[in-house]
Structure formats: structure tokens, C-alpha cells
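Hi team,

As requested, here is the filled-out complex form for the FE2/S2 (inorganic) cluster run. I kept the field names the same as last time so the parser does not choke. Let me know if anything looks off before we queue the next batch.

— J.
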Amino acid sequence: MALYSEKVMDHFRNPRNVGVIENADGVGEVGNAKCGDIMKIYLKIEDDVIRDVKFETFGCGSAIASSSMATEMIKGKPVADAMQLTNKAVAEALDGLPAHKLHCSVLAEEAIKAALKDYYDRNGIAYDASQFPDCAHCDGCVCG
Ligand code: FES
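And here is what came back:
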């Protein structure tokens, strides 16, 4: 079996939603200190629905594929649904990632959560801080 699925290769070669949103309603940037990769997510939110999402990822192919898939998965969805997105769901939607690349999908989940947190903060929306675990679950991350 090939190391990477067709879907990973497709999203790596033709990533969806690459770019920047000017005047975004939420911006999240996370990095993995070990590999040095950085992911930034921009959200445009209206009526609690994610109308648009863009990303910039400086990282490995799996991180690019994960960001692309993750943005597709939350586009057009209510904020509450986007909050439920897990790295596991992103990896599954990509038909799997090699075990040593799973942390790349964690970056996508964390970047989206960071952008949603920014949206909540900017708008004074109350949230349960425990929904934003600060990297404790990320084995690729050494920032904790
Ligand atoms: Fe750093 Fe993939 S190796 S995110």
C-alpha cells in the first residue's frame, strides 16, 4: 500500500482554500515546535455560520493536505459544528495518514480551534475554556 492515500496526494497537490481573508472574524495560528511547521486559519463568520475559510500553511505535505481537508469540512457549517472537528475526523476524511504524520492533522484541529477562540474573544462570546485544550493532547508538540 502506498504511504499516502490518493486523497492526501490530491489535497497536497491541489489544496483548497489557500490564502488570506482580509478583515477576518477570527484568525488562529499554531505551530509545532518540533517540526517547525506553522498553520494559520482565517474565518469569515456571519450569523454564526462559517461563510468562508482560508489557510496558509508552511509545513509538510500532510499538514497542507490536513489544512485543505479541514477547511472543506467546516466551510458553510455552524460555528458549533466546527468546534467539534477533530484531527481524527480530518485524518479519516483523508483516508488515513501514516502514524508518524498524525500530528500534522492535530495542527489543523488546533488552528481552527484557535481561530474560533479568537472569534469568541473578539465578540465577547462566553465559552468553556476546557474546549480549548492547550496542546496537552498533541504528542507532536513540545510547547506545553
Ligand atoms: Fe510538521 Fe507535518 S511534519 S506538521
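Two things worth flagging: Helices lie at 6-13, 61-74, 79-83, 87-93, 102-122. Confidence is low (pLDDT under 50) at residues 140-144.

Thanks,
J.
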